[in-house]
Amino acid sequence: MNITKLLYSLVFTLFSLTVLAQQRPAAQQRPQTQQQSDKVELQGADSLEGVTINGQRITKLLGNVVFKQKETFLYADSVYQYRDSDMLEAFGNVRFNQADTVTMTGSRATYDGAKRTARMSGGVTMQDPRMTLTTPSLDYDFETRTATYTEGGTIVDPENRLESRRGSYDTKSKMFTFQQNVKVNSADYTITAQNMRYNTLSKIVYFQGPTYIKGQQGDLYAETGTYNTITKVSRFGRNAYIQTPEYRLGGDDLFYDEGRGYGTAKTNVSLKSLKDDVTIRGQVGRYWRDQGVAKVSGSPVMETIMDGDTLYLSADSLISREAKTPDAKSMLFAFNNVKIFKKDLQGKCDSLSYNRTDSVMYMNVKPILWSEESQLVSDTIRIHLRNKTIDKMYMFSNAFITSEDSLRNYNQVKGRDMTAYFQQGDIRRVDVNGNGESLYFALEGDTTLTGMNKAICSNMVLKFAENKLKTISFLVKPDASFIPPHELKESDKQLEGFTWLADQRPAKKDILATRTPIAPRVQPKKATKTKSTKDSGKSKRQAKSKK
């Protein structure tokens, strides 16, 4: 039986060569010098016949047809071979195999042996050791080993499922290029884009346009950059951001390690707290997801809405910390050279903390606040907010309020502690608690000075209107005096500790200006004892011992 099949194969091959030689003119036969491996060679078929269709001479091969060119094999149920060219048309169970690494199947294909290109259609599937591509039609270049589809395709590898309207695949570099309606799905994330590249070897996604990544730990957006689908490490550029339930961190140069929950952003950085609509802008941002901590430096500025107006706060560095347990507080910390600006409120201090859960703000180390014509100073200031409006303010230790009148006199009140009450964002009343002293200039019609009231009283109440000091009430009998204008001396016009600090009052441009961070303090080195000093000390101890 085997001998019969072998003889049949030899006879079939000789017959095929004879028919082809007779039907092809000598002028169109290939030179004898051409290598056999470059030709499109028939390897086998159950039957063949020569026909002419539309004036073209064609060899019809039927049943288990096999062709070979170089390292490429073509299998099909039937094939039309055009004798005047290296064109093949294959039908039924068409399969290409290149170097035993790339396999393509479909119901129909056209193969150009001169160009070594193929166009397949009818439920095309392409496979290599790393992925499977399915598409209605496919063009493949066997020289460049590049596949292209334009009617939608789906790529599946062990980690991801990718879809797009158009795309190409370089089987040498293992790089996919996707265009239009790109979607990537895995167990941990979903990616949508319009243009994207994906390497099936490294599992890295390359963004080339607006791209969204939705993950279990947060969402990412970028217009250019890379995302490693294995390590979950992202490197983005141009308008990129990370978004978690607490924050949205963005910048033009963004890095995020989803596994570690750590991200950094550089250039045009913005950090937005989604719970209370607080935004921090700067040049460098860092985010630790598990700790719920974000830090912005590089001339950072915080913006939030208060009293229907925007409150700006700047410092050398701003740190936001989210509450991770029910009993914890969400906090904002500002360090070094803190400045505050709002149309009707300005301030400065060395450091600041803001309890966003309880809406309480602490200004520490030489805090100063200005409200219209009033200046408030103490060792520490605590501000209570309600509905994003100042409701109450406590001034602890060495509290001092100064208010400038229309004649540029300075009404002054000092005490141990003070409590200020606000209404609709305006200061209405201040209670002085302990060691109270006051200077109040009496005016007639805001144009004429009629004298100055000076009083010492432990507890006082100050009333304000339009953010200006109007009256002072004494809760216990004061030690008071009235000094007429002609008896006033310059030394009488100031309480001890008075300082008018209007030159330090920040404007909006000061808040937004690029700043140079304060250099860290260098601790002085301890003096090293010289040998003579040590010897001298030793001699003194010995002398004392002898006594």
From TrEMBL:
Record InterPro entries: LptD (IPR050218), OstA-like_N (IPR005653)
Keyword Signal annotated: yes
Record domain Organic solvent tolerance-like N-terminal: where: 38-193
Regions that span the bilayer: none
Keywords assigned by UniProt, alphabetized: Cell outer membrane, Membrane, Signal
UniProt-listed Pfam families: OstA_2
Disordered as annotated region, ranges: 511-547
The keyword Chaperone appears for this protein: no
Name this protein carries in UniProt: OstA-like protein
Native species: Pontibacter ruber
